[in-house]
Each structure stands twice: as C-alpha cells, then as structure tokens.
Amino acid sequence: DGGITQSPKYLFRKEGQNVTLSCEQNLNHDAMYWYRQDPGQGLRLIYYSQIVNDFQKGDIAEGYSVSREKKESFPLTVTSAQKNPTAFYLCASLNRDPPYEQYFGPGTRLTVT
Amino acid sequence: GDSVTQMEGPVTLSEEAFLTINCTYTATGYPSLFWYVQYPGEGLQLLLKATKADDKGSNKGFEATYRKETTSFHLEKGSVQVSDSAVYFCALSASGGSYIPTFGRGTSLIVHP
User: Fold this and answer.
1) Are A106 and A85 spatial neighbours (Cβ–Cβ below 8 Å)?
2) Which of A18, A103, B5, B90 can bridge B23 by disulfide, Cβ–Cβ 3.0-4.6 Å?
C-alpha cells in the first residue's frame, strides 16, 4: 500500500540538542510538506518542497531545517535555535494533478525538556 | 489570499444526533474542497472531497456539498456515533501553481453515549 511513514512516533530530547524527524513516502509525489500542530491548534506550515533539491520556507521556518535529496524522503531537523520545539509534527505529500489532494503521515510527537 | 473559516468548537453531541460543521471559504479560481478528519494522536485522513460547484462528496455517512453561490462546504451527518469523535478540518486545494493547500483551524467534535 502506498503511503507516508514518519518515525519515530514519539521522540524525547534534552534542550539544546538537535533532532531529526524522518518522513518517507512511496506515492511518487513531487511535493512534500512539514507542519507543526500544537494542542487545540490548527496546522502551521514549516517547510515545503516542490521538487528534489529544492525547498521553501513556510510560515514558521525559524529554528528548523530540511533537505530533499531524494524524491521519497524529506527529513526535518529541529535545531536548538527553535525556542519551543515540543509539538506534534506532521509530514504530508501532495499529488500535483487535480484535485491536488494532500496525504498525511501518522505524525511524530516531539517532547523537549 | 485564500482562506477557510470553520465554526469554532468543541461541538458536543449525544449519540445519534444530527451534525453540521460549517465551513466557508474565500478563493481565487475554482479550487477543490476537502474535509479531513484527525483522530487523537494520529495524522489527518481525507474524509471526502468535491471538485466543482454543486458536487456532493460523501463517505462513512458524512456529506458536504460544494456551494459556489454561498462559498460554503458544510459537513453533515445524520446520526453521529461515539467513534466519530475527532477533529475535522475543512480545506481548499492549492491554486495558482503554489501547491499549498489552505486549511481551516479545525473543529473538535465530541460525541457522548
């Protein structure tokens, strides 16, 4: 079955450490996205990539970095510069043919103490 | 720019009650419209979609009709179950080549036995 995998499901880190969240898709989608979700809040776009080796900042990119070396993979690094990194992180991909449907992974819950 | 407005939650209902979650949008062009559902601790799943005016999307007893004249896409279900308790997001597709969907803030639904 095609889909998006994110690992791990839960991640714990100490303050001051960088951490990388994995996102892999086998849907053959060009476009991939990272969102952040805080309790009771909607989705906020961190970074997105329309094609391999290219990515753009979203609304809240400060303190995060990404890479897109392969079509299937779009890892997100939460750096020590991110002031409030504890959140639920969602990866998504999008079919660039109409109706432009977006598919989501199961999410990673990051807790930084 | 594009925007989606959803009714604020939480919406609290008894089992077998009728559900309506309002969604209105502002968009240029002719976007597709989506409802996604997010169960606790999980990613978003596509619930239903509609691609043009007067289309009705339906799935699992949920329905929504694309109303261009009122720029609305309200979600309805005739008889909710406890298992429908989740957060529901209304969204419109990327437009103008940006490939960035626009999401509402989400509406939490709580169904009591």
Assistant:
1) no
2) B90
Token pair recorded at residue A38: 């805080």
Question: What band does A40 get if pLDDT is binned at 50, 70 and 90?
Answer: confident
* Beta-carbon contacts below 8 Å between A and B: 59
Q: Which residues of B59-81 are buried (b: 16+ CB within 10 A; e: fewer)?
A: eeebbbbbbeeebbbbbebeebe
Q: Are B101 and A104 a contacting pair at CB < 8 A?
A: no
Q: Which residues of A touch B105 (CB under 8 A)?
A: 41-42
Q: Which residue has the tokens 């999008």?
A: A94
User: How do residues B49-90 score in pLDDT, each as one tens digit?
Assistant: 999 999 999 999 999 999 999 999 999 999 999 999 999 999
At CB < 8 Å, which residues of chain A contact B?
4, 6, 31, 33, 40-43, 45, 48, 50, 90, 92, 94, 96, 98-107, 109
Q: How many CB atoms lie within 10 A of CB A34?
A: 26
> B1 in contact with A at a CB cutoff of 8 Å?
no
Q: Please name the residue of chain A whose CA is at the shortest distance from the CA of residue B46.
A: A103
DSSP A64-97: EEE--SBTTB--EEE-TT-S---EEEEEEEE-SS
The two three-digit tokens of residue B107, written as one number: 């509406």
Distance from CA of A90 to the nearest CA of B (A): 7
